[in-house]
Amino acid sequence: MCPLSFESLGLAPPLLEGLRDMRFESPTPIQKAAIPLAMTGRDLIASASTGTGKTAAFLLPILHQLVGTKPGTLRVLILTPTRELALQIDEQALALGYHAGFASVAVIGGVKMSPQEEAIKAGAEIMVATPGRLIDHLRFPYMDLSTVDFLVLDEADRMFDMGFLPDVHKIVCRTAKTRQTLLFSATMVPTVRALADEILTDPETVSVAATRMAKGLVQRAFLVAQNRKGPLLAKLLAHRSTESVIVFVKRKKDANQLARLITRTTGREAASIHSDRSQQERVEALESFRKGECPILVATDVAARGIDVDDVTHVVHFDVPHSPEDYIHRSGRTGRAGKKGTVLTFVSGDEVSDFAAIEKHIEMDVPRAKLKGFDHGSMEKTRRRSGGSGKGRGRSPRRR
Known about the structure:
Rossmann fold, alpha/beta, seven-stranded parallel beta sheet
């Protein structure tokens, strides 16, 4: 059976040209599921993880409906939690809509408002915004959302984690009630479901959220004391086989410290990216990583939601993620497009049970690894200090 093509979805010719320019060959599962439904004008709730092609899944059906309409009026509003993700979506909107002549503007914090104001006044049809900066613009008469016919809430779960729910409510109230609303979320937590019930009308629901890891990924878990994680990371990154690495941490403070430690002990350039860095610093760090000038990027999960870089060879979970979904999403930064990738997780004594939950969710035991000649520290001391029982490794049952 031949795979479904973009042509078979009935997309307008200018969009097919844009897809060819971007070398998009065939739709991903979320695109196959979401595009036909959204093209009919129905509201949509979509559960899709990072790296599944969800940006095109909401852009293409919206742009299809805009083809042939009168330009010069704000018609599309896309809300997203981070500046990096907003810039990424804006770039893709411009590329996909290039042959149809659509203009897009990224409305984000950390940069001057005046260029954004000029683009808004010039009549950009598409606006990709972070909630906080859009609220800033709404204080002025030039910012009119009443013409918005298409509203997208992207990474809705992360927006709520970051405390944007009140801002989202304020923004939604300023848009037309007759709009089409598309809500995309990696996880469908109660706050997301409650908002969907409130602002969507008779929505269709699609879900292609990952429950298993992508093929081609090599996974390893290092059982290591918390205070030995930094030295272990430095030792591993000293090997040149780790060509392009994203290290995920929970705390902004750890991101800065680890980047300095890596640079100092390995002689390899490492940069950090998190919400306390200025927009210019974040853009420069991301561009340096994307170009290969800085091979190691240390990131908090919130900031990393906008990272879309090909050819990442390794993902390191310096801290065990809060949820199995986060583990899958972060790990999906490597091993893309059928390429091989390596995922390493550092598990301290008080994180064993959390990692066991991840293993159960992905239905596999992640092989344990040790670095020869390296002191991994005492797991027993870590467990007693954190109140753990110190019994067993918390391994999950093997997949049947």
